[in-house]
Amino acid sequence: MFEVPPPKRIDEANAIVIDQQRLIRDTLKSVLVQAGVRDVTVCSNAFEALSACRSKEFDLIFVSFNLNLDKDGFHFLEELKFKSYAKNTTGIVFLSADTDKGLVNSVVEMQPDDFWLKPFDIKGISRRLNFMLEVKQTLHKPLFFADELDYSRAIYYADRLLALTELKEFHPRLLRLKGQCLMTIKEYGDAEKHYREVLKKYRYNWVNIGLAKSLLKQEKFTEAQELIDKLKLRADTRCGIHDLLGQHYLQKGQYEKAYVEIIEAAKLAPRNLERNKRTWELARLNHDPMGQREATINMAKYAKNSIHDSPELTLNVIRSNIDLANYVEESEAGIYLNEAQKYLNELTTNPKLYRKLKSQIDVINARLHSAKGEKGKADAILRQLHKNVSGDVENNLEYNFDLIKAHHEAGNREACIKLLNDSKELVNGNMFSGDILNKYIEQELDERSHIHFTPKELTEMAAAYHTQQKYSQAMRMLDQAFRLSPRNEKLAMNIMKVAASATEKGRLDNDQKRTVSKAIMMLNKVNLVAEEAKLYAFFREQIGEINELDLLSTELA
């Protein structure tokens, strides 16, 4: 039989307190010593604390959110979990004077054992500390096996403790652990039964979310939907249920629905870097350059001083600004190009960093030239880059994606398609890449093979054709632009304007009707200001009704 090491006695436990305020450190140390903890380490910043965690295993960790000297407490706690310095058997308490909903939601996702608000009520935190110590002592065996990834044994010992009525106050924690273990080993039917039984006694948010997840995993969609609709209305379950739905739709390949849900979860808990990354990938796949820009900005902002921090994140912010500049009208494009240039200037002021990122910066400079209409300069940079590209970026997916865009925007179609095919092999050979990237590559191959200009360029060409009363050509350009930018209201209104003009000269063909129909569907979903709504109504009246059979016949063809 596997021997389980006994839980440490309280006087054997090691504790660490991380807070920049000396008064807080001293207060907590005093409370811990009074509770019987003899070994208490205090640190004023995350750097000191990480050094301490490398040399000693701590049983109790108290971490403050506000660690201004380096990283914040949220990212420090994330790093501790990532490096296995904090486990199920570890007592973790998060300390903060901030009750911002975004922070609270983010911390709740990290599942600390408790959250203590500053300033402290000494009697209150002493009572909560003693309870947490008792929890870790009493629940030691199931927690230990959960740390060992032996979930069946964890469930076995949880059930043994649940059978003891004298441990009733610990039952909620045991029930939560058991539910998580059942879901991890994919016993979804048993998990559903478990959560339904728990709901007869408790109404905790994790019970409802666990039940919803077990129903979705079994594809019991009708039952799940009824529960999900209720949970979206509850403040304590809203973030978790949006995240759950996002993951569900991702697994089903329903990327637009997944994007909608993950955006909502990211708004509610903005510090989750993995979710922000997923938002960015889905924004790119769903042709939402504004959402892509917001996601990269959030990634760079919330990764600051964390284990995720990297100049690559700033490069992604620059790239997303250039992407957006290529989607909007000339009057707006300058704003995003200037922002991209500002971030780029900050990177290039560091000589060591510039040398490391030179190939990537060269590609960005080529894209900036193309966005300003200086395609000759862009092409010259790309030709020189082909001779001098550094080997460390050849397997960098984001660099390759950016290089593809640079060649496409400079008019190098063959180089663009070749790089896309190479990237497809690179994605397939990367065990950490997911279905989203594979789908994105397929989409890029299709679109860049058939559409040779950016949405901004296509819109400008359409405007010129419209002025010349060449409405068929204008509609063709706008259709291509709208395929690349299906969320662009101004572009949709331009389609309506050209279609109205074309109708005065004759009937729209079925392809043009399909383009107009897509624009109408998009505009019907947005809140137009009074003047735009009036203009939209005028265009619709000019165009007249569109026969759905005509659209169907085009689709079948």
UniProtKB/TrEMBL annotation:
SMART domains: REC (SM00448), TPR (SM00028). Coiled coil: none annotated. Keywords: DNA-binding, Phosphoprotein, TPR repeat, Transcription, Transcription regulation, Two-component regulatory system. The keyword Membrane does not apply. Residues 14-133 form the Response regulatory domain. GO terms for biological process: regulation of DNA-templated transcription. It holds the Pfam family Response_reg. SUPFAM superfamilies: CheY-like (SSF52172), TPR-like (SSF48452). TPR repeats lie at residues 239-272, 455-488. One of its GO terms (cellular component) is cytosol. GO terms for molecular function: phosphorelay response regulator activity; transcription cis-regulatory region binding. The keyword Phosphoprotein applies. This is Response regulatory domain-containing protein.
